[in-house]
Amino acid sequence: MQQQQVVAFPTETVYGLGADATNEEAVQAIFDAKGRPSDNPLIVHVGNKEQVYEVVESIPPMAHALIDAYAPGPLTLIMKSNGVSAPNVTAGLSTVAVRIPDHPVAKALLETANLPLAAPSANRSGRPSPTTAQHVYEDLEGRIAGIVDGGATGIGVESTVVDCTGDKPIILRPGGITKEQIEAVAGPVGNDESSLNADDQPRSPGMKYTHYAPEAPLWLVEGDVPFFKAQIAVLQQNGKKVGVMASEELAPEVEQADFVHVYGSRASLNEVAVGLYNALRSFNTKDVDVILSEVFPEEGMGVAVMNRLRKAASETIVQP
Ligand code: TXA
Ligand code: MG
Question: What is this structure's pTM?
């Protein structure tokens, strides 16, 4: 880190790409390695609750409540920055995103470095976030100093990003902590990706970019199983090779597809989240022209799953 280099490491959500958050040059290396637009700010990771104070001006009551309830954990809080983080970490905003990850390797790294670590997800910009060291390697080989391999991550989607700078918490990105969990300790939430913050800028700068996309186009299919099967048939009649991202329940119904990636049961949306990014990546090595995915109920972890699927599909939704 002292050489302004960047290293990928596991967290409980996805792999992060870390560098000294106080060092502008090191942080720039993260943007370069990812090909990330410089107006999309990074999350600052700290090792414990006390260290949150090192990067923020103050901790508002709602943030205190959320930290007490869910940190360390898959939660990122937006608060006023105290300017300790390098300006490129926050992309010039007056706020900073802070998270205490809950993973033994991330904790050990933060303790050893004894620094706040700026770390976005360790993927190339636009691609699905990495849930294994292999995914990081596929995206960033030759572009970063190293990868700490801690096996597959446990949650599978990124942290929930909550803006704590206003009167009520606003969920900027659904993730590992659900809306119900936030409301239980911090009261009713607003949920507006497009509203403006105190700097008169979009609250969530990352939201405007393409995200999580596999190489082949992804379509989300609403409607019942016969409708899903009919979509496969029509595409194949038109000479297309069709991939399907399927739950265990859907998989036996769609064997006609050219490639089926099975990833968890509809009975457990947590399981679907764990396998989601690996599923999206699995098609990149398969000869398919289009990928079809089922949709999931938008409750609990299903909110984060559908948020990522919609972005990966650029909102391409096929309806009966
Ligand atoms: O689970 C996670 O959050 C993972 C692991 C590695 O911690 N990290 C992650 O980072 O997903 P990244 O950079 O891929 O996503 C950070 C999100 C982006 O949508 C960014 O726009 C938003 O947080 N963000 C960061 N700072 C912000 C700020 N000051 N105001 C509003 N949004 C901010
Ligand atoms: Mg990311």
Answer: 0.95
The reply, when asked if residue 95 is annotated as ligand binding, is yes
Amino acid at 281: R
Query: What's the pLDDT tens digit per position in 247-287?
Result: 999 999 999 999 999 999 999 999 999 999 999 999 999 99
Pocket of ligand 1 contains residue 165 by CB under 6 Å: no
Please give the C-alpha separations between residue 281 and each of 1, 174, 197, 276, in angstroms, as whole numbers. 30, 21, 34, 9
Tell me the ligand closest to 139's alpha carbon.
Answer: 2
Domains in the chain (CATH in brackets) are: 7-186 (3.90.870.10), 218-318 (3.40.50.11030)
What gap in Å lies between CA 280 and CA 57, rounded to an integer? 39
- 316: annotated binding-site residue? no
- Counting from 1 in the atom list of ligand 1, the atom nearest the Cα of 36 is 13
Give the three-class secondary structure for 188.
Answer: coil
Cβ proximity of 214 and 229 under 8 Å = no
ipTM above 0.90, yes or no: yes
Residue 261 labeled ligand binder: no
Which is it for the CA torsion 139, 144, 145, 147, positive or negative?
negative
Report the pLDDT value the prediction gives residue 3, as an integer from 0 to 100. Answer: 72
